[in-house]
Amino acid sequence: MKKLRxxxxxxxxxxxxxxxxxxxxxxxxxQSQGGNDKPQVEFKRSENTNNGVIYRTGNAPVIFxxxxxxxxxxxNLTVRTSSNCSDPDFATVRxxxxxxxxxxxxxxxxxxxxxxxxxxxxxxxxxxxxxNRKKLYACPRNAPNNEYVWDVYxxxxxxxxxxxxxxxxxxxxxxxxxQGHAVxxxxxxxxxxxxxxxxxxxxxxxxxxxxxDFSMNRLVDNNKSGSSFxxxxxxxxxxGSLMYKNGLACVPHSQNTSPGDLPYFNGGYITYMYGSSExxxxxxxxxxxxxxxxxxxxxxxxxxxxxxxxVVEFINKHYKVDPL
Length: 324
Prior knowledge:
alpha/beta
């Protein structure tokens, strides 16, 4: 099982100045005690930065991660090279403007819903740490400072997921990336390959291996809409179809069910580890690879708005939580 295979080192952190109070849905640490008969106080969001990694608390069942957009040099970190890293897919390229996109998504989500998503953002450059790889591949060998920063990022994802699961029962993590492929569309990764997406709906539904690998596996068994695996993957109320409805070209969705022979990112370590593939956990995950046009300064607000609209509708349609 994936959660047993990949054991994350738990590092002790000093969270200075965190104020945990709540209004409605929030971090469990931010709730007043004694249930609904006690007066509620306003939720106050907290932000913590540790070695170039930002963590913001939330009070919605939504988590955003942005691991590859950082430019910071960090502190006493070793540069990753193909010789000192064991990563078979070694890369240091930055996903340009994804930090800015994540921050825009954060702002628009609050403006639309009055609630905050959890945010984990890496300002540290990928040339030091690749947060979307397991630690063995993410950091240079014999580089404890790099490994510590990796631990910071992943422990905060775990912390956010624990809060969401305890407070809401289920939720969604969206991992924000950027790609420069020729076709300008958002590639939505569910840990299913392009060749698997080429299969018909009946072929996908007829083999339990595909559902087992699906990073929204849990939602298939735990949705209020009665939706099937294929419905959630690429049906009319799938995340992709709702993104497309709101003006974002993407794949897969009901009108564009597979990338075919086009280049396609189907989801990396974060999506696999923190999603519900292999029928593990209550939090679903998806990787979103935004094309370079959608991330441009002049287009970023439109992109973020379309995504937030789609995410809110997707959550409200399928998840057994209070409407956003």
